[in-house]
């Protein structure tokens, strides 16, 4: 569930506009090979990996010095059809390989993966701790 403080903040930001209603994630419809639109827990349980494989693939590719020198690596957009095709392949369990010229595609795939997670990386259960982190004395952080 979304904490009340977040809902109240969102209502203040909307100021009369109709709030977006999101349906809760449905793990019963997820495929074992799926990585997009599922929870990190699901991926870890079904891929026997502590880090989602698509994150490892994208980060390893982007960590190359040539990739890191590309201007606008996380700002430039790419063909959405290409990204959807890659997502489909990954969710069907296919192995993908990025070409040297695919720096922006790998960056967009990584951003898309993080954006489409069924649960945020910083979970709802951790929300209060995260919000009040700066209230803690430096020694306790």
Question: What this model shows, in words?
Answer:
- By secondary structure, this protein is mostly helical.
- The chain has helices spanning 4-14, 40-47, 53-62, 65-68, 80-91, 103-115, 127-131.
- The mean pLDDT is 86.
Provide a concise account of the structure shown.
It is globular and about 45 Å long. Helix content is 45%, strand content 0%. The chain has helices at residues 4-14, 40-47, 53-62, 65-68, 80-91, 103-115, 127-131.
Question: How would you summarize the topology of this molecule?
Answer:
Blueprint lengths: L3 H11 L25 H8 L5 H10 L2 H4 L11 H12 L11 H13 L11 H5 L10
Helix pairs in contact: 3-6
Entry keywords:
141 residues, mainly alpha, 7 helices, globular
Average pLDDT, all residues: 86
User: Strand fraction band?
Assistant: under 5%
Low-confidence stretches are none
Assembly annotation = single chain
Q: How many strand units? A: 0
**Shape descriptor:** globular
- Gyration radius (Cα, Å) is 18 Å
Helix content: 40-55%
Order of helices and strands: HHHHHHH
Termini separation comes to: 26 Å
Largest sheet: none
Number of helices: 7
Which class do the helix and strand fractions yield? mainly alpha
């Amino acid at each position: 569930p979304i904490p009340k403080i977040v809902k109240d903040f969102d209502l203040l930001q909307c100021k009369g506009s109709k709030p977006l209603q999101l349906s809760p994630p449905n793990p019963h419809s997820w495929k074992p090979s799926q990585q997009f639109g599922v929870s990190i827990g699901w991926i870890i349980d079904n891929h026997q990996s502590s880090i989602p494989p698509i994150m490892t693939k994208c980060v390893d590719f982007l960590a190359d010095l040539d990739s890191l020198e590309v201007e606008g690596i996380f700002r430039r957009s790419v063909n959405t059809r290409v990204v959807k095709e890659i997502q489909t392949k990954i969710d069907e369990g296919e192995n993908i390989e990025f070409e040297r010229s695919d720096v922006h595609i790998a960056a967009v795939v990584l951003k898309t993966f993080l954006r489409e997670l069924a649960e945020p990386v910083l979970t709802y259960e951790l929300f209060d701790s995260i919000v009040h982190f700066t209230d803690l004395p430096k020694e306790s952080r």
